[in-house]
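Table S2 (continued). Query chain:
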Amino acid sequence: MGLLGKFRLDERGATAIEYALVVGLISIAMVAALNGMSDQLQTTFNNTSSVMANN
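Corresponding output:
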């Protein structure tokens, strides 16, 4: 079997690419979720800091 045949049968690179795609999709979902909650989080942190500053 030649070099191209061995390269075609080797699946290690494909597995690494699949894991990278999964990590990328999870990262995109996390960024989208945090972006949607950013206003609410900012309000919560501002309220918390105001309460702490006044006490």
